[in-house]
Write a structure and sequence with these properties.
The chain is mostly helical. The protein contains nine helices and no strands. The protein has one domain (about 40-170).
Amino acid sequence: MRAFLDKKFLFIIILFASCNQTLENNAEKEIKIDKSIEATFEVPIKLEEEFISKYNLDDWSELKLIESYIFVLANSIAGYLENDSEYLSDTLNSLSTYSSRVSNSEFQLYNERPEIKGRFKLLNIQIQKTNINIDDWSKDKGLEELNKIFIFYNYSINILKSILEDSIIN
């Protein structure tokens, strides 16, 4: 009887050990594979110093602050992909503050041209949306929304350049 129990006990241990295996290792491997996101995004436009001084844009402090934080945000994308959204929280909060200040700007060109106002308002909305929701999004969605900030910023700068360069011709 004892030999029978030893064999049965050995069988139970083998059965228990084989049933106790989990699929966590495979799930972790799949997650690690999914984390390799390629950071592709619009490169923000940098206004040339000559252009800035020619049109007195250096007097528009809100624009200079937005420009500098846009470039900080662009340089932080790799850190965001390697870490979490907390990595961008200070930058997005500052960018959000400065983009809101543009709407109260007293810069003459901004107040005279509704096209410029509209573009900067769209940029502000996108920054606010991203700042509020980035914690809830996947990295892919977060990167997509961050890219929209750069796109709206580039639209704003392009309309600004277009208006200023056309005003000299007219």
